[in-house]
Every structure is written in structure tokens, then in C-alpha cells.
TrEMBL record:
This is Cytochrome P450 302A1. The lineage of its organism: Eukaryota, Metazoa, Ecdysozoa, Arthropoda, Hexapoda. The gene is disembodied. Its cofactor is heme. The keyword Metal-binding applies. Belongs to the cytochrome P450 family. The keyword Heme applies.
Length: 510
């Protein structure tokens, strides 16, 4: 392959493109302080060709990989090559499957863990210095990433701050349940778009103290603010992985890059309108405002461009991610009536009356519900795994992993392998319940649906809380049954259901 090493800079950190050695297998052994180790090029993987590397594997008609079915690609690689697989789709890439190896990878983390992701979005935002200071939390690396993370996470990650949002979240979800009853939802309708609207409404309330009124007749029009916001969030997320692999958008605005840019621009517009309304109405911080935006505006080391970038990131990350995760949870619960019965019995004890309010105490006591969420995330995590860009050389299973290697931990597939978990394809929440007969000692690095360490999902606690409240309200009101075919995934950065979410809702009499 052409020597393209260190031709692209990601926020000051050079990402090495594949060199001749990555394809030729030169330098079979490398000497380091631990003695002879095998070179990275000796790790098993698909054949690498000059110029194209392993990109041919993803090409239509000639390749057997599908960019929207990375879970299937992952299974093929594991069966063909084992627990470490090398690729070279433009960069040096390593897939890691074994949880013991995944732990080794994360133990190498720098103080500022790095990723090679959202590269086109980083390019877009840095081209607009009048709007953004950085590429945002999702695409930035290094000390600038840590400045953002350490400042914003104070109100995202502390248990008490998350509990403060329970009451308002429950209020929005209660309205949604009433809408389902009035609308008389049929299993012939795809439930996913409704979950998208619900999560826009929840995040608007919690993050910005803003109601989008997503379920009003006028807002269900395709040209409404809520509809276009949902479309823009999907438009931003859906092309990220393809753009990360691509090169042409760096030379001219490809249709996929234009879709990303247009989507980002609309999210900027919505966020800016909310932000300007807030700073115009509140010259001084409102002490009674416990929204995330209210907390951001009180931070002394943030300016409005930082806040605007975070608002766009929140909308991008919150709508699709939580909606898809909830869809998969309802899929598993709807297919397992014995699990749903246990959930209902627990919820009934916590909420004897349907109109009782949900408190943070009730959420914390809904242990079986939370185990169902964990089990659903094991089988259908937010993404297939976690990405890292190595910042130093290290040895893994006798192979030298060079600095600048992109690593993807294949947690989704590993969580479905019998050598790591019993009856791996069975939906069994009890495996997470300490003291129960079905409890398992699961390797802590096997299921990582929200990532690991300082670079883990900043909104993890909030997302889990929102999903639990949605499930508590829905199961309290309805017996839910899955009416569709077996549900797989489309890997559009985050895992989306590959078929309509077909559910029947039968009202409960209790």
C-alpha cells in the first residue's frame, strides 16, 4: 500500500494510515524490552492489497462485508480468524473479542483516552469557528476533550443530579402513555417513531426545559420543528461511520457529507433558538432551573459556543440511542411473558395505583426492571463495541500493537458466545441479580454498552433512568406482546432495529 502514514491530523493527534508493511507482512518480529514479539502484521485477518487495503471487503458485489451489518462481519471474522482480527480499511484496525484482552486494551488508556470517530463532524465544526470552539465532546481528543468532559459531567453523572430529573421525566412519559391509550396503537404501526418523539420530548424537558409538543397534531407534520429535529439527529448519526471510512468528502462535499452538514446546521438552529431565548430572558442564572442547560450557563469556564456544541451533541445522542435501546428492551420483554410477569409483579408492588407518581426511590427499588434493561443491553447494546485510538505501543497476546492503531472491542458478539456466558441467546435478567438462582459471575469487560472509563457515555445514568421509567409506566398500564419477526440490527454508528417495532398493547384492569 502507498505510504500514507501520518497524513491526517485529528485535533493535533496524527492518525496513521496503512503503510506498506501493514499489507506485506514485513518485520515479522519486533524486539522490545520483553524480548521477541510478533509484529502487528502477523495478526490473522483478511488479505490486504496495495492502495485499497481491506476496503474491498465492503465493496458491493465483490465483498462479503456489509457496512450496515457489522455484527455479522464480526461473527465472520471471529469464525475465520479467532479472537484477534487485523484489518486495514484505510487505517490500521484491530478487532478484539476476548473480555480478558478487552480489559488489557482499556488498561492502556491514556489520561485522555482517544477515539477515531466523528471525523467528518469534527471537520465541519472546526470549519465554523464563529459557531463552535471545538468539535464537541463526541469528536474531540486530548486536553480540550477533557476540558469539556470534566466541566459538563458534573451535572450529568452524579447520582443526585440525575435523580432530580425523575419527576419531570415521569410527567412526560405519563402523557405518552395516555396518548397511546387515546390513539389505540396497533401492532401494524411501527412503534419506533413514537419512541423517537417521546425521547425528544423527554430530553427537551430535562436538558433544556423546553417542550417540543411532539405529539400534538401540528408537530406530527413532517415539516414541524420536532419532525425535522428527529430527522436531523438521524441524518447526523447515520452517516458517521461511512464518513469515517471515506476519503472523497475531504476533497469535495459528497452527498453523505452534505446530509451530515445540513443535519448539523438544523440542530444548530434549534439549539441556538432555545439558547438565545434562555440568555435573553435570564440575564442572571435562574436558581430554580435544574435543567442541564441551566447548569451549563452557571459554569464559569464555558462560553456560549461550548454550550451550543453540547446542546447539539445532546440532541444527536439522546433521541435515537434511547429510542433504539427501549425498542430492543420491549422486543425482548414482549417475547418473554414470564419475564414480563415478574416485571409486572415488582412494578405493581411499587405502584399499587396507576396514577401514583414515580420517585427516584421507586426507580432504585425496581431491581428486576433494571436487570431487564441490563440484559437487553447485553444482547443489543448501543453499538457493537467500543473504539480506541492507541497512544502508545503495547503487547497483546504476543503481538506488538503500535501507537496509532484503531481498536474496536467486539462486546456485542462476545456477549453472545457460550464460552463467556451461559445460554447466551436467552433473555435471562436473573443472571444480573445477585443472590438469585440464575446469577452469573460475568466478566466485567464482557458487556460495556456505555463504554468504559473517562470516555464512557456521559449520560449513562440519565439514559438508564429514562428507560426504566418508560418500562415501568408501559408495563404497569399494558400487557405487551411482540408481534413481528425476529429483530436484528442495522449498524448506523448506533444499533438500530432492522425491522418495524411491532407491539400490541393490551390494557391491564388492575
Amino acid at each position: 500500500m502507498l505510504k500514507l502514514s501520518k497524513t491526517f491530523t485529528n485535533n493535533g493527534k496524527c492518525v496513521r494510515f496503512v503503510s506498506n508493511a501493514a499489507c506485506s507482512g514485513e518485520n515479522k518480529e519486533v524486539q522490545n524490552e520483553k524480548g521477541h514479539v510478533k509484529s502487528f502484521e502477523e495478526i490473522p485477518g483478511p488479505k490486504c492489497y496495495p492502495i485499497v487495503g481491506t476496503l474491498y471487503k465492503y465493496a458491493p458485489y465483490i465483498g462479503d462485508y456489509n457496512v450496515e451489518k457489522l455484527d455479522r462481519n464480526s461473527l465472520m471474522n471471529w469464525r475465520r480468524y479467532g479472537s484477534l482480527v487485523r484489518e486495514a480499511p484505510g487505517v490500521r484496525l484491530l478487532h478484539v473479542y476476548d473480555p480478558e484482552d478487552i480489559e488489557v486494551v482499556f488498561r492502556q488508556d491514556h489520561r485522555f483516552p482517544a477515539r477515531r470517530s466523528h471525523i467528518a463532524m469534527l471537520h465541519y465544526r472546526l470549519s465554523k469557528p464563529h459557531v463552535y470552539n471545538t468539535g464537541g465532546l463526541l469528536s474531540t481528543n486530548g486536553s480540550e476533550w477533557w476540558r469539556l468532559r470534566s466541566t459538563f459531567q458534573k451535572n450529568f453523572t452524579s447520582p443526585q443530579s440525575v435523580k432530580n430529573h425523575v419527576e419531570r421525566t415521569d410527567g412526560v412519559i405519563t402523557e405518552f402513555v395516555q396518548w397511546i391509550k387515546e390513539r389505540n396503537i396497533s401492532h401494524n404501526e411501527d412503534f419506533l417513531p413514537y419512541l423517537n418523539r417521546l425521547n425528544l420530548e423527554v430530553i427537551g424537558t430535562v436538558a433544556f426545559n423546553e417542550r417540543f409538543e411532539s405529539f400534538s397534531p401540528q408537530e406530527q407534520d413532517s415539516n414541524s420543528r420536532s419532525s425535522k429535529t428527529i430527522q436531523a439527529a438521524f441524518g447526523s448519526n447515520s452517516g458517521i461511520m461511512r464518513l469515517d471510512k471515506g476519503l472523497l468528502w475531504r476533497l469535495f462535499k459528497t452527498p453523505l457529507y452534505k446530509k451530515l452538514a445540513d443535519s448539523q446546521e438544523y440542530l444548530e438552529k434549534v439549539s441556538k433558538e432555545i439558547l438565545m431565548k434562555r440568555v435573553t430572558f435570564f440575564v442572571h442564572p435562574d436558581d430554580n432551573d435544574n435543567s442541564l442547560l441551566g447548569s451549563f450557563l452557571k459554569q464559569p469556564n464555558l462560553d456560549l459556543k461550548d454550550v451550543l456544541g453540547m446542546m447539539v451533541d445532546i440532541i444527536m445522542a439522546a433521541i435515537d440511542t434511547t429510542a433504539y435501546t427501549t425498542s430492543f428492551a420491549l422486543y425482548h420483554i414482549g417475547r418473554n411473558p414470564e419475564v414480563q410477569k415478574k416485571m409486572y409483579n415488582e412494578i405493581l408492588a411499587l405502584l399499587p395505583s396507576k396514577d401514583a407518581k414515580i420517585s427516584s426511590d421507586i426507580v432504585s427499588k425496581a431491581i428486576y426492571v433494571r436487570s431487564c434493561v441490563k440484559e437487553s443491553l447485553r444482547l443489543n447494546p448501543v453499538s457493537i463495541g467500543v473504539g480506541r485510538l492507541t497512544q502508545k505501543d503495547f503487547v497483546l497476546r504476543g503481538y506488538l500493537i503500535p501507537e496509532g492503531t484503531v481498536i474496536v472491542t467486539q462486546n456485542m458478539l462476545a456477549s453472545r458466545l457460550p464460552q463467556y456466558i451461559k445460554d447466551p441467546l436467552k433473555f435471562k435478567p436473573e443472571r444480573w441479580l445477585r443472590g438469585s438462582e440464575g446469577h452469573e459471575n460475568i466478566h466485567p469487560f464482557l458487556s460495556l454498552p456505555f463504554g468504559f472509563g473517562p470516555r464512557s457515555c456521559i449520560a449513562r445514568r440519565l439514559a438508564e433512568q429514562n428507560i426504566c421509567i418508560i418500562l415501568i409506566r408501559l408495563i404497569r398500564e399494558f400487557n405487551i406482546k411482540w408481534m413481528g419477526d425476529e429483530l436484528g440490527i442495522r449498524t448506523l454508528l448506533i444499533n438500530k432495529p432492522d425491522k418495524p417495532v411491532s407491539l400490541s398493547f393490551t390494557p391491564r384492569n388492575e
